[in-house]
Amino acid sequence: MTAVDDRPMTTDIVKFFENFEVPEGFKVELLRGEIVMMAGPDVAHNDIVEAVVDQIPRQRWRRLQTQDIAILEETSEPQPDLVVLERGTGPGQGRLMPSEVITMLVEVVSKTSVDRDYGVKRSIYAAAKVPAYLIIDPIMAQCVLLTEPTGHGENADYRRQRITKFGDLTPLEPINIELDTSEFATYEKVRPHRYP
């Protein structure tokens, strides 16, 4: 007879994740109890994040990079490419930013993150009730703004979706700006995908 331990591993996974030493040049996230490790991003990816940060007014918004997010109900601690919240909200110290104070999350799709960014993270961010999730996709040369989160757990999603092409202004109503995407680069020699 084989004994099976049915105890939830949530606490053990979170403790392991918090103490895990990340090898240099890698990024690690906890997504619904699964630890995901990725190589560092492409230069085009970093240039896009920098261009977005430059367009979000610092006086009104905190624009945080490499910031882990606390989403307790999801056993998730993602690290989006950019976290946007109102200046004066959220903690000033610590590793985790509570999802409740976040206005918008931004992910720039990498060559290996398509499924995570369009699928798993879309559901996780909607379940956390993050008001806006912007996917910037250098493979398809487009931005996808998702708003109006609804639902719970793996069934959570966003009700509204707006797609704009690179080169067009992308209205970001939640932070009251129009994002200029004319300088966003695309990846070379990457096959198109089926999203959104």
Q: Keyphrases for this structure?
A:
196 residues; alpha+beta; six-stranded mixed β-sheet; two-stranded antiparallel sheet; 3 helices; 19% helix; 33% strand; globular; disordered N terminus
Characterise the protein shown here.
- The protein is α+β, with helices and mostly antiparallel strands and 196 residues long.
- Helix content is 19%, strand content 33%.
- It has three helices and twelve strands; from the N terminus they run H-E-E-H-E-E-E-E-E-H-E-E-E-E-E.
- The strands form four sheets. The chain has a six-stranded mixed beta sheet. The protein has a two-stranded antiparallel ribbon with strand order 1-2. A two-stranded parallel ribbon has the order 4-6.
- A hairpin with a 6-residue loop joins strand 9 and strand 10.
- The radius of gyration is 17 Å and the shape is globular.
- The termini are far apart.
- 33% of the residues are buried.
- The N terminus is likely disordered.
Helices and strands in order, then pairings?
Elements: H1 10-19, E1 26-31, E2 34-39, H2 43-55, E3 61-64, E4 68-70, E5 82-86, E6 96-98, E7 104-108, H3 114-127, E8 132-137, E9 142-150, E10 157-165, E11 169-172, E12 177-180
Parallel strand pairs: 4-6, 7-8
Antiparallel strand pairs: 1-2, 3-5, 5-7, 8-9, 9-10, 11-12
